[in-house]
Amino acid sequence: MKGDHSLTLLDRFYIRYLRDEESAGFIAAVANHYTVGTLERVVKCGSNLSRRGAVLALGFIGPFGCNHVLGRALRDPDRAVRLLAENAIREVWFRDGSESHRQQLAIVARLNGAEQFREASDLATQLIDEAPQFAELWNQRAIALFQLRRFKEAANDCHQTLELNPCHFGAAVGMAHCYLELGEGFAALDYFRRAFDINPNLVAVKGQIAYLQRALDEN
Questions:
Q1: What CA–CA distances, in Å, run from 70 to 23, 32, 151?
Q2: CA distance 210 to 70
Q3: Distance of alpha carbon 43 from alpha carbon 49, whole angstroms
Q4: Which pLDDT value is given to residue 2?
Q5: Residue 134: CB partners within 8 Å, gap ≥ 6?
Q6: From its phi and psi, is residue 63 left (phi > 0), alpha (psi between -120 and 50) or beta?
Q7: What single DSSP character describes residue 195?
Q8: Is-contact 189 209, C-beta < 8 A?
């Protein structure tokens, strides 16, 4: 790294965050000096250190509109940027829609985490009727439906998630698993590849692609 005189203000905030791990201070400092638009520009063309700080900041404060910038950052040449982008983009997926819908989505996600899949599916269905453009609602219902072994319906919800949010590698992976359960290996392989193309950091998916390709070649 160059001497301290070459560091931007964002670089300094990021280094301080790495040292202190104090997220509230980092968020406040960045918000006082940078707009979301400026952070997005830094993600596209800043130094490695600046891009890391900008991606981290967008994960904390960025709206859903940052989705595509963070989606491109999943393929950044810097590994740290890529890993930060994966965490950040998962956060912004929950920031679409109204405040009320975001609060209800958090409940759906908690229900899925608690393995209360029927309740999660029912609440997600109600919310989808109210906010059909909120991609993460479809994804969370897909998770619930998959666990309820309603694989065709889950695949349909994964498809809708990807229609609304082409950066949603999680839905692409989910679609692949639905197709595996439905006995459609070639379709599953296509969606594993799509997920890996969106997010090349998915090491497990890379292994699944290789394994499934060998299995299909042998048949």
A1: 19, 21, 30
A2: 27
A3: 10
A4: 46
A5: 96, 97, 101, 105, 127, 128, 164
A6: beta
A7: H
A8: yes
Instruction: Give the span between the Cα atoms of 69 and 44, in whole angstroms.
Output: 8
CB 74 within 8 A of CB 42: no
Integer Cα distance of 42 and 34 in angstroms: 10
CATH 1.25.10 in the chain, residues? Answer: 8-92
- The tokens describing 165, both together, are 């949010």
Tokens 């829609």 correspond to what residue? 97
Token couple for 3: 């001497």
Q: Does the 99-218 domain belong in CATH 1.25.40.10?
A: yes
pTM of this prediction? 0.93
Q: What is the mean pLDDT of residues 161-188?
A: 97
Q: Indicate the SS3 state at residue 141.
A: helix
> b/e string for 14-25 if b means 16 or more Cβ within 10 A?
bbebeeeeeeee
User: Residues of CATH 1.25.40.10 domain(s) within the chain?
Assistant: 99-218
What CA–CA distance (Å, rounded) separates 130 from 96?
A: 13
Other CB atoms closer than 10 Å to residue 142's CB: what's the count? 29
Instruction: Give residue-wise pLDDT tens across range 13-66.
Output: 999 999 999 999 999 999 999 999 999 999 999 999 999 999 999 999 999 999
At the second CATH level, the architecture of 8-92 is Alpha Horseshoe (1.25)
Nearest alpha carbon to residue 121 among 100, 134, 138, 135: 138
CA distance 37 to 66: 9
